[in-house]
Amino acid sequence: MALIVQKYGGTSVGSVERIGAVADRVIRARQAGDDVVVVVSAMSGETNRLIDLAKQIQERPSERELDSLISTGEQVTTALLSMALQKRGQDARSYTGGQVKILTDSAFNKARIRAIDTQGILEDLKAGRVVVVAGFQGVNGNGDITTLGRGGSDTSAVALAAALKADECQIYTDVDGVYTTDPRVEPRARRLDRITFEEMLEMASLGSKILQIRSVEFAGKYNVPLRVLSSFVDGPGTLITLEDEIVEQALISGIAFNRDEAQLTVNGVPDSPGVAYAILGPVAEANIEVDMVLQNIGRDGTTDFTFTVQHVDYEKALAIVRAEAEKLGAREVSGNAKIVKVSLVGVGMRSHAGIAAKMFKVLAEEKINIRMISTSEIKISVVVDDKYLELAVRSLHDAFELDAPIALID
Ligand code: ADP
Ligand code: ASP
Ligand code: MG
């Protein structure tokens, strides 16, 4: 008998009918002899609706009150799913994060899980119950409700699986696994049977919203077997696993993209020590996360400096940089919020040269101008104009033959 944690995302619990279908699926797992803990998201669109309500009252609502509000969507689905299970003759109990004692820090809206009390859950399982836990939420040391950031139910599920030492954490969603790229952008994308934690972490960090980054971090750290599957159709899904368990390693595993980037450039700043700090220091102090940074070779005593931030921070960052640039006597500050970052990801890159060159060639042939480039051991990212997103993703997908069954390292 195995212990399985199943997580169902917003679309999977998007209506009363869908909740019924989830109950049927949970019961099938029970009938196969497994203990099941279920983590649910809010019904699709609900979290956005709640955020929108708050914004109608206050543009920047208190983070504590916002968490109290947006955590409610998950409480609704836990109770409805428990009812659907009970109606089918399966004993079940729903719990909020606070009831379970999913203890987090106090960083409202982006809290981190510190500890989970598993005792109550284990007692329920022993009594033959299915335990239904609200995803996305926890409680801090003062008993305040916290939430884990958008997509956070994935992290609730993996953290519960780690704490319970579950045999598998299954993430049920509206696609039947992790694909070579978002199938909404490239319909020829192919489902991967397996992907490494490391690659999945890169894909998530580089913008693939299929799994929340922290859920992959958690799964890698605690070695939780993690599988992404569809709640609509049966199938093996994608197993996220260790590198040495993958027999046929592809050169490139996938293409990620991030629409949520904006670029800021300062031209003609003095090419002297402390300039990067003078520009980025105040940006960091304003709690703005900087992604890519690029500085040109200096000429005539001046240099150019470019970096990217998230869209929400763009205007704020631009104002800060304008003020700092003036103090530094820079020639000009410009910004561009209509950019995207497209990245190739694959552990196979470590042992293979020429991938970057091929990527640049493909983009050149499509006449796509590259604005920034950044590389690491297992990824290459480029920043391009947002109008080229689909073209860039599809032409790279095609050139690297990601739709073919296996693009093996030779
Ligand atoms: P849920 O509500 O179940 O958490 P999400 O919307 O968070 O679902 O994640 C599923 C979506 O992730 C898919 O509908 C798909 O468009 C998107 N996605 C992005 N990148 C990928 C990828 N590489 N493989 C599969 N789906 C992806
Ligand atoms: N409901 C939350 C969100 O929409 C958490 C989740 O679905 O994972 O972000
Ligand atoms: Mg999600």
Summarize the structure.
This protein is of the alpha/beta class and 410 residues long. Helices cover 35% and strands 27% of the residues.
Describe this structure in words.
With 410 residues, this protein is of the alpha/beta class. Helices cover 35% and strands 27% of the residues. The chain is built from 13 helices and 18 strands. Helix 8 packs antiparallel against helix 9. The protein is globular and about 80 Å long. The two termini are 41 Å apart.
Query: Approximately what portion of the residues adopt beta-strand conformation?
Result: 25-35%
On the 0-100 scale, what is the average pLDDT?
94
Write down the Rg. 23 Å
Low-confidence stretches: none
Largest sheet: 8 strands, mixed
Q: Based on DSSP secondary structure assignment, what is the total number of beta strands?
A: 18
Number of helices: 13
Based on helices, strands and strand pairing, what is the structural class?
Answer: alpha/beta
- Relative helix content: 25-40%
Which cofactors or ions or other ligands sit in this model? adenosine-5'-diphosphate, aspartic acid, magnesium ion
- List the strand order in the largest sheet: 3-6-2-1-9-11-12-10
Q: Give the overall silhouette.
A: globular
| First-to-last CA distance | 41 Å
